[in-house]
Amino acid sequence: MDRSLYIAMSGAKQTLLAQASNANNLANSQTTGFKSDLEQFRAMPVFGPGFPTRVYAMAERPGTDLSMGSIHTTGNDLDVAIKGEGWFAVEGQDGQEAYTRAGDLRITPEGRLETGTGVAIYGNDGPISIPPAEKIDIGNDGTISIVPVGENATTLAVIDRIKLVKPELSNLEKLNDGFMHTKDGSLPVADASVSIVQGALEGSNVNAVSALVEMIELARNFELQTKVMKSADDNSGISAKLMQMA
Q: Which pTM was predicted?
């Protein structure tokens, strides 16, 4: 009895964890540049003294789906999307360099160039600052040019260049801050082969229909696990009564 109850309990717990991951994907189906998390189940023996006679279910995130999302035109000068492979270098929550595909840029009142989530975009020498300007132009190679306030439209001043990188995908992992980081801690150099398009954004690569179907399947799996737990508890009660009669 205890074996079936333990297996069902661990399966129900891990199903809830998988459901949380799937719900996060679904919640970000409209988030710019979001990459969906993958999840899988596997059986894990309990190791310790004696033989591994107990096995529990374990949900894990084997990786992240790094496929491209669809690119749609916005017409906003501060919206940029990467064409093909590549990443924007940003300042992570820990102050270290991280990477994202979200190109919904904005300029703070202090002139700092950030993504829509408020993290600084890196240029050649760290975070980019934009002085007051009449117009901002971002070239295909990430070069940022502005028309300074009070100048005519033909006067362009180059401010900086967005750091665009293309590390090996096998060396990337998503951490709890939601950004990609290199597994070995290395800092990729700017890659001139990465190009961007101004006035467009890359959407999320989450398939909302598939995520909804998976949510239903996980809910049914959780219900099945709870039924097994109830059956194990009923059997335990019946066994206890039989022992009392004896």
A: 0.80
